[in-house]
Amino acid sequence: MSLRNATLLIFLILMVDQLSKIYIKTNFILGEEVEVLSWFKILFVENEGMAWGTRIPGEYGKLFLTVFRLFAVGGIGYWLWDSVENKHSSNYLVVAIALIFAGALGNIIDSVFYGVIFDDSHSQLATLFSEQPYGKWFHGKVVDLFYFPIWHGNLPTWIPVWGGRDFTFFNAIFNVADVAISTGVGILICFNKKAFHANN
Questions:
Q1: 3-state secondary structure of 128
Q2: Which residues, other chains included, contact 122 with Cβ-Cβ below 8 Å and sequence gap of 6+?
Q3: pLDDT tens digits, residue range 88-134?
Q4: Cα torsion angle, 56, 133, 114, 136, sign
Q5: What is the set of active-site residues?
Q6: Which pTM value belongs to this model?
Q7: How many CA atoms lie less than 13 Å away from 108 in the CB half-sphere?
Q8: Which of 186, 10, 17, 197 shows the shortest CA–CA distance to 109?
């Protein structure tokens, strides 16, 4: 795959990711949901830290995370460029890296900019380019919106650890950028030999 095609793929993913997040931010109040199907909902939540809502404690925890992500996406970008320049690299590898890069960049845009371009989403619709933003540079919250509660109920008591507890499968809430990252990682895992086998 050429660098031009990889860049186009990244651009398309970023466009879909950011347009969906901006739509949700400006049309949903935090916590609001719409049921599409019994097992699929659009649910607006904001992630202040890493995956699964994990947070780095302390005043500078969020800043550290965002700066780390910037360095990480720079490294991924170099990996993508180097793989494209290496004419023997597999298309599986280039597509996977492009997906991971696009997803990482999509969530970084939230972290870097959303705190200074949106106002708060609590009990109100957020305004784009608000005069009273909810945060500051590098302290934005990542918008998540896809929720697939495929099954919800109490697990049988004979199941170790989780038995007898209220349980939802699948309870993660995510966005387009997360899908891109997961797909890229999935390609590297499932097509490992093809991805890392140099074309002759």
A1: strand
A2: 29, 30
A3: 789 999 999 999 999 999 999 999 999 999 999 999 999 999 999 99
A4: negative
A5: 144, 178
A6: 0.89
A7: 19
A8: 17
